[in-house]
Protein: Cysteine desulfurase
Amino acid sequence: MRPNRPVYLDNHATTPLDPRVLAAMRPWWEENFANPHSVEHAMGREAEEAVEAARAELAGLIGAEAREIVLTSGATEANNLAIKGAARFAAGQGTERRRVITLATEHKCVLESVRDLAAEGFEPVVLPVGPDGLLDLDLLREAVDGRTLLVSVMAVNNEIGVVQDLEAIGAIAKAAGALFHTDAAQGVGRIPLDVEDIQADLLSMSGHKIYGPKGIGALYVRRRPRVRLAPLFSGGGQERGLRSGTLPAPLVVGLGEAARVAGVEAMLDAGRIAGQRDRFLAALRAEVPEIRVNGHAERRVAGNLNITFPGGIDAQALMAAAPEVCVSTGSACSSAAIEPSYVLRALGIPEAEARATLRIGIGRFTSPADVDRAAAALAAGWHAAVAGASR
Structure:
């Protein structure tokens, strides 16, 4: 690692590649580069076996069967396939269920997928959340009825880190005969997740959120009772006809290894990361006592802090004043937007405060020295920004 490298605290946007994952992938670039669908020859069959072993690791992480895992390019594709695929298949079967329910704080790929279905005759319903970022279950019960086809609720919010009550949400959806989908990109490998416990029909995952490679993800599709989807695009019929295209064997192997490591170390990671989070917050509060953490205080993943700074200092100015720390103002997918975070606005946070908010993501490889250095840099940057604004 080069000297004076910035402290990386943006693990919600992407996690660094675990060295064990890189080691697992290398042979599939350098030694056996065969197409895993070329099963007519030995190298192709070997690649196929590696893909299936990785699929089994991923399935085991969420309590699923390997044949229920559909490999995709990432969680965005998985979310699109789950939501649009379920709706379009149902429409082709002449269903009268046209309501698709989600939350105002979902990732944009979920919100846009749900909204896109309005042009196809579906009824999008976007429910609000409380000031703590959690869904009011009574509000969901009121919205779910016999017209509801699908409920899509994120497991862990990518900005404020809150963990929704998936077991209760799944039960409400099932009681009404609706499908339940969860975008678990930020949850898999961070919190315990079992598709049977939460009664999920569809669950989306991403490699680069669990210390795996970018460009690979997966969608769990329940087999019993069977959930049917219409594919998003046409091709060679790979992945049981749901996701055509040649599978990138090295990336799939990396995803499998990341899942294996998470299955063994997730709870150890969570305890260590929570300690680093508390250390960071205590150090920052010692210098800037008026900071506020957004989202429910307890129902959140270990590594997340969404912090509003006092004094009306714009978060972009604060980041510029502390260039040795890599943090963000919200979802990487929304980083080009000039408006404040829609997630924070959904919590009722005023625009000026939303603009003064940073997302801190602590991860597996964050050290005590990292959090100490980052807290000191952000505190110094805030004081400098306040002093500059008062001139």
In short: The domain at 19-260 is CATH 3.40.640.10 (Aspartate Aminotransferase; domain 2). Residues 19 and 138 are 45 Å apart (CA to CA).
